[in-house]
Specification:
Elements (H helix, E strand, L loop, with lengths): L8 H14 L2 H15 L7 H11 L5 H22 L7 H42 L6 E2 L2 E8 L10 E8 L2 E9 L4 H20 L3 H17 L10 E8 L6 E6 L5 E4 L2 E4 L12 H4 L3 E6 L6 E5 L1 H4 L11 H5 L7 H16 L7 E8 L26 E4 L5
Antiparallel strand pairs: 1-2, 2-11, 3-4, 4-5, 5-6, 6-9, 7-8, 7-10, 9-12, 10-11
EC number: 3.1.3.16
Protein name: PP2C family protein-serine/threonine phosphatase
Keywords: Hydrolase, Membrane, Transmembrane, Transmembrane helix
């Protein structure tokens, strides 16, 4: 999806590189069999190895390449026989075996190619649907520079429920990142409904709790109109806003991973003062909408992400922690920040994600009149915690 949506492109390139290396394996086996036979003066029977070569070729070569490999194995076997002795009736069995296995390998190649084509089509359809639901975000909204990433795990051709949005409204800039439970068309329907609710509420609701309550109401409608797994759906989310003067960052966290504030070589997790249930589960915990207030200094970057990042595991099952990676000075560029996070995640996991991951970052630029003067930028020496008296709890009025 544009600059920010790579949709597993890195994994596809790695897979193609591995496939190119494997394409040399059948030829390598044939050469190795020839060398072994010649060096041992026929003391080692290499015909079983030659017979296996077309089967090895079937998953990694084309149909023509698989058949050519079988023919090459037969010719090498014939050459070895002529080098050692006159061909006899006893040689019919190994040569017939190579021919039969070449036919089997060709059929296997056709089936594998058909399956790969179907999977590729499914993934392309999934990517198109994902792009339709999540169009590219603008690179800039007000004084905010914007960057996004979407990484698809590609375990299967299922569409994920991770999404984000940013909207400039008469009430300030509203920001959203969320993760709907589950995958597939059910998740996409929920994503589409919540995105529409967010955009509508952001424009018409004057305060952040009103936006959250409207999204909760929409989630409850989805659940009431559904059955099966979709009826048990919910969505973790962070909904934030900045007023027109960018004086304060208001954050409503609905069971989601805490955003990270990256500034001046330090990282501050913006943990909620009062934990809240995800969207769709409000009936279990009341209709209170806790909203925490934080400072967002000029030059600071706000990083939001879904659990595909912080739940990414290495070979030993250790979860990825983005805080150490971001604990250094960055240029005021959200794209560079997200690139650093993703590079670290792929190093941690060995190049493969266990779940889809969405990342969203905004950097607050100085006002246009002071853009050339950064002497007034502030640095955070302590976490911008709501414990410093900047938290407020919004409640719905009775009735």
């Amino acid at each position: 999806m544009g600059r920010g949506m790579r949709d597993g492109h890195k994994e596809s390139m790695d897979r193609e590189r591995r496939l190119r290396r494997l394409r040399w394996l059948p030829a390598t086996i044939i050469v190795a069999a020839f060398v072994i036979d010649v060096s041992t003066l026929g003391g080692v029977n290499v015909f079983p190895v030659l017979a296996a070569v077309p089967v090895v070729a079937a998953p990694v070569l084309s149909l023509r390449g698989t058949i050519a490999t079988g023919v090459a194995a037969n010719l090498v076997g014939l050459a070895l026989v002529f080098l050692e002795r006159e061909p006899g009736t006893d040689d019919l069995v190994p040569f017939t075996s190579i021919i039969l296995l070449t036919v089997v390998a060709a059929l296997l190649n056709v089936l594998l190619a058909r399956d790969r084509a179907q999977l590729r089509t499914s993934r392309e359809v999934a990517a198109v649907l994902q792009r339709a639901v999540l169009p590219d975000l603008p690179y800039r909204v007000g004084r905010l520079a914007v960057a996004t990433r979407y990484e698809v795990a590609h375990k299967e051709a299922a569409i994920g429920g991770d999404f984000f949005a940013i909207k400039e409204t008469p009430h300030g800039i509203r920001i959203l990142i969320a993760d709907v439970r589950g995958k597939g068309l059910e998740a996409i329907r929920t994503v589409n409904a919540l995105l529409g609710s967010f955009h509508e509420a952001s424009h018409h609701r004057p305060d952040l709790p009103g936006v959250v309550r409207q999204m909760e109401d929409r989630m409850q409608e989805i659940i009431s109109q559904s059955d099966g797994a979709e009826a048990e759906s919910f969505a973790t989310a962070v909904i934030a806003e900045l007023p027109d003067d960018y004086s304060v960052l208001r954050v409503a966290n609905r069971g989601h991973s805490a955003p990270l504030l990256v500034h001046d070589g330090k990282v501050f997790p913006l943990e909620p003062t009062t934990p809240a249930l995800p969207l769709g589960l409000c009936a279990l915990g009341g209709d209170e909408v806790p909203v925490d207030l934080f400072d967002l200094p000029t030059g600071a970057t706000l990083v939001l992400y879904t659990d595909g990042i912080n739940e990414a595991r290495d070979a030993d099952g250790v979860f990825f922690d983005p805080v150490p990676v971001l604990s250094r000075r960055f240029p005021p560029d959200p794209d560079a920040v997200l690139g650093t996070v993703l590079d670290a995640v792929f190093r941690h996991t060995g190049g493969r994600l266990q779940d889809d991951a969405a990342l969203f970052a905004v950097t607050l630029d100085p006002p246009a009149s002071t853009a050339s003067d950064t002497s007034g930028a502030t640095a955070l020496d302590t976490p911008p915690s709501p414990a410093h008296g900047r938290a407020r709890l919004h409640r719905t009025a009775p009735g």
